[in-house]
Design a protein that fits this description.
This protein is an all-alpha fold. 76% of the residues lie in helices and 0% in strands.
Length: 205
């Protein structure tokens, strides 16, 4: 099989490869490794936007490129959520809801495609993805300071500073990542519902 290794496909493949060190750094669960994981995740999220634009601008769109792009997105996001659960940064149910939605939507879109119906990504799916990225990065940064799961210092990480001291506003600010993640969960559920609603006529056939 010939794989066109243009810059867009290399970026997509790079996200797949970078998933390994990303997960390792989260599982190490040290202040520096978690902060580095947050930075790496931001870089990976940026490449997610760049590769698609490059492919469309320079005519590098290909089936293998689409496969690499979609696969890389789901792999690095799911792996990050699972690693965060393992490190005690994220509640398990949140990861389950977000990952389960991806399986359901993939199944619905595949079924619809088999029936000759194309269900494109809509604004709710894009809002969900952006909010999830922000929440993940925010919670990784918060965890690097010892704050996770929406509480002040309840995880196994060492606190960088006293949450009850003069830096309490910063501690509260860091804890907002959990609430942003809850917003991402709501968008996840609603965007998943939208996909199912659009495919509903096929289920009645």
């Amino acid at each position: 099989m010939h794989v066109p290794w243009n810059p867009a496909n290399l970026l997509s493949f790079g996200r797949l490869v970078a998933t390994v060190p990303l997960v390792v750094m989260i599982l190490m669960a040290t202040p520096w490794s978690l902060f580095a994981a947050a930075v790496l995740f931001v870089i990976m999220a940026i490449t997610d936007t760049v590769d698609g634009r490059l492919a469309r601008r320079y005519g590098w769109v290909s089936n293998i490129g689409i496969f690499l792009d979609l696969t890389a997105d789901k792999v690095y996001t799911a792996a990050t959520l699972i690693a965060m659960v393992s490190a005690g940064i994220l509640a398990p149910w949140i990861a389950i809801v977000i990952i389960a939605r991806e399986f359901i939507v993939s199944g619905v879109r595949s079924f619809a495609a088999a029936e000759g119906m194309v269900i494109p990504a809509d604004k709710w799916g894009k809002h969900k993805m952006l909010t999830t990225i922000i929440a993940i990065v925010w919670m990784l940064v918060a965890a690097s300071a010892g704050f996770a799961n929406g509480t002040l210092g309840s995880n196994n990480l060492s606190l960088l500073f006293d949450p009850g001291g003069p830096l309490r506003p910063l501690a509260l600010f860091l804890s907002l990542g959990y609430w942003i993640m809850l917003a991402a969960v709501l968008l996840t559920i609603y965007s998943g519902y939208e996909y199912i609603r659009k495919a509903a006529p096929l289920f009645r056939a």
